[in-house]
Amino acid sequence: MILRNALLGIFLAMGVSLLMLAFLSWLAYDRISESNRRTQDVNHTYRVRLKNKDILNTVNTIETGERGYLLTKNEKYLQPYGEGRSILKGILQSMDLLVRDNPRQQQRVDSIKKEINRRLTLIEYNIERARNGYAPDTAKVSDGKNHMDNIRSLCKELDNDERQLLTYRSKLQKNADSNTNFYLFLLSAVSLAFLLVFFRLLYTELRRRIAFQNTLEEKLTDLERANAELEQFAYVASHDLQEPLRKMRAFSERLQMKEAGRLSEDSQSNLVKINQSAIRMQQLIDDLLTFSRMANLRERIFEEVNLNAVFRDVKEELQEVITQKNVTLISEVLPTVRGAEVQFFQLFNNLISNAIKYSKPHLPPVIEIDCQKVDGHEIPKIGDMQRNNIYHRISFKDNGIGFDPIYSEKIFVIFQRLHNRTEYEGTGIGLALCRRIVTNHNGFIIAEANAHREGSVFHVYLPT
């Protein structure tokens, strides 16, 4: 839970940080775009002013060619005139495109074009008169000067407006650049801050995990030590504890045989009780050893196990009691699963033996085993990580005496019995051993019964 909360906190902080970075990135991008637009506006103003100068220079070139021809009658002076007219046409077209977003300047350009057309018409007229041998028309020359003065005046007005516009746009560009630099700095600073925060979080989490791993290693060491002690206990239990019990049984049986004629009925009864107690103690020790071995990881050598074969082996093992009690044992086709075959044999043996042992008097036991695949969310109290898994549900159903549903968990606790030993013999370990085996295989076991004591069902869930 702590690890999940830590990861949730990190992911939440990362999500908020990414949103903030995305917002700042968008803001910086918007400022950069604004700066680019302002730069384009400034460049546009420069281009208008340059085209305006090109108009004046080209008109002056045309006039120079005119004057040279009128003075010398040399056709070579008409070359700049012809080239200038062609160039001027392209310049005026470009100027139209540049000022189309400014109605006031567009009006000036239209006026400039009209004055230029009038001036060019007079130039053509003067050149034609000179070719025909006539002297220049003084009135037309004066008109031409007036048109040229008008062109210069209009171009100057246009340039003055563009200069003012350039001052305004340059100021906007400067502000945009300043804002862009600020937001880029802010984005870099925030990114660096988040990077430092994430580094700190990851560093803290790494240190916590290292500490957790060290603690886990210590726990594993303690567990290995406990397992070693448990193995030592198992050895002692299997040899040193059982040896006195074997002697008790041997001496009590010998005493019964040798002194049978001289012992009273009470003494003989006591010897029988001593012998039976020794047998129960030996059985209890054997069951404890079996239970402890199931917790030993080294015995979990998993392989493909055919549960149909396990069922047949258990049925053969219990054939004598099955025949004696007229047991009806029915099983569907069972799956093949991964696990320890000896543990599955123990599991089936315990569950079937329990069903036979807790059968109703004078009613032949009927035990049915069926299997089907189920989703993990159908298993009560299953963990969130296992809900999406698929399981084999193997159900052991009997018609025995059943049990009160309130004890559906208690019966799996070691040494917990629901009946007196005089009614039903046993050590109280069998079902606890079943749960340990199923847990070893990452599965679950659940007991079901009804209040009317009409049999019971044990559901074993094993991963597919």
From TrEMBL:
Stretches that traverse the bilayer: 6-29, 182-203
Organism: Runella slithyformis (strain ATCC 29530 / DSM 19594 / LMG 11500 / NCIMB 11436 / LSU 4)
Name of this chain's protein: histidine kinase
PANTHER family: PAC DOMAIN-CONTAINING PROTEIN, PHYTOCHROME-LIKE PROTEIN CPH1
Record keyword Phosphoprotein present: yes
GO molecular function: phosphorelay sensor kinase activity
Keyword presence, Transmembrane: yes
EC number(s) reported in the record: 2.7.13.3
